[in-house]
Specification:
By secondary structure, this protein is mostly helical. Helices cover about 75% and strands about 0% of the residues. The protein contains 3 helices and no strands. Helix 1 packs antiparallel against helix 2. The longest helix is centred in the middle third of the chain and has 26 residues. The protein is flat. The relative contact order is 0.12. The mean pLDDT is about 90.
Length: about 80
């Protein structure tokens, strides 16, 4: 439970730091905040998992799924 909470805290700090106050269009500013937050959360979550010794859990299942999709269909 500590990794997602830490990743969320890192995401919050990053979004606050990169919030585009100079962008006058609220929808664009929101989109930028969403992109920065999503990328930051994912990278923080994977980094914290890796630093924890890559224990079995949701991250390993997700990594295996993404890896299998990137390799393409299995050949019989």
């Amino acid at each position: 439970l500590w990794r997602p909470l830490a990743a969320a805290a890192i995401m919050w700090v990053t979004v606050k730091a990169f919030h585009g106050d100079m962008i006058d269009i609220p929808v664009v500013r929101l989109g930028l905040d969403i992109m920065v937050g999503a990328v930051t959360f994912a990278l923080a979550q994977i980094t914290l998992w890796w630093l924890s010794g890559r224990p079995d859990g949701t991250e390993r299942v997700l990594l295996a799924f993404v890896t299998s999709k990137l390799r393409g269909p299995a050949k019989a």
